[in-house]
User: Fold this.
Amino acid sequence: MSQPGVPPAPGRTPAWRYAIGMFGTSIPINMIKGSMILFYVDILGLDVRAYGVVMVVYAVIDALDNPVLGHLSDRTRTRFGRRRPWLLVGAPMLTACMIAFFSAPSSLEGAGLLIWFAVFAILCEAFDSMLNANYGALLPELYPRERDRAVANGLRQGFQLVALVISLAVTPVLTTQVFGTEDSTEGFRTTAVIYGVVALAVIVFMALGARENPRYSTREQPMLLRSVWSIVRNRLFWTVGLTGACYGIAMALVLAGIQLYVRYSLGLPVGNALYLQGVVILITAGGLVAWTRVVARRGALWAWRVAFMVLAAGFAALFFAGDLVTAIAAGVVVGAGWSGMLATNDLIVARVLDADAARNGEHREGLFLSAFGFFGRLNGVVTGLALTSLGVFFGYNSGDDPGGDPGLAFRVYLCVYPFVLTAIGAVAARFVSVPVETPPEAAVPEGPPPPGDPAGEPAVERPR
Assistant:
């Protein structure tokens, strides 16, 4: 029987309707991350050291605003839900900022170019964080059971990979051959407008169809400082967050440097990135079905550990690739490992969110995911420092000053750095324990457990 004064649970949101939102959120930010070095450093001539400084500053700002955005989402109380208003506001803002990011006037140079890059890079990441904190918070709310959650997550990762095919693999062809040339910026602006309009339509469609659970909004609004203190004292926040960051940072390096790896390390036109990225993404998409079955049989934790090892092996193989064919062969292994991480990483995080809600009696998924996003914000710091290191070790400062061996420089950037990170992640994952699946009836807790209640400590799935 339903409790007096508690709104009834909504109808179930179709998994495909929720999952398609990942297509809309992925297109803008992956075009930005995949093309910013080529656009600003290699074509417009922004000094790589200035780029590195901006990325560090931007990562610090993003790490600070993420918990605030997540907390505001958790405290939102409207008849439209907690998450949907933020999605409907963030989508047009991200679209506008992305178009501006790739519309830098050709007359800009020096400090003017640096300011334009810094302002719109920070704004794009801020609105992307707003979207993803709210979109990600819907997953454990809409699908309490891990089996249903795995299906919805597999579908949304599939939509993300479709978006990656477009925003990463197809983008070099559109920007350098269809709408522009290898050395011009016109193609980037036109492509950004097209992608932005498509992303906006998809996100709005998803948000209007998401049936949030009104019972999650009936409790006392969580306080920021108390919630943050509780999260940072949670051991799982650090173990899962830091281990997952090894994967996230590695993939951020790959997405940012793949086009220049093709240009300098393989000695091919940038447009050939279509074939390498396309094969990797297709293998990743195909592997989602297999990895979802592995999760069902062996559990998310076991599959997560194996995926780390496969991904590290792929980066090692990619370092020795000498042409497009051998790079594609190595990319198959990278795709297999990447697929496993996509299928499992969010499930590991979702178990932590479930345990937190069951233990503390508050649904603060937005703040918790934003806190986890702190580790993702390390992406900007590490990618900026990694790119700056190419100037220190190999003399690559920009497209106008590429140094004596840019091919080796980007081989190190794209292969060696990600290999080291994922190898560390593979070792760390062996020592991570996560809570067992939380029963759906615990998804709406009655309140925090009394002090000393053993039920307040969630059972964990330990390394085997």
Notes: The beta strands are 434-435, 460-461. The mean pLDDT is 82. The longest helix spans residues 324-360.
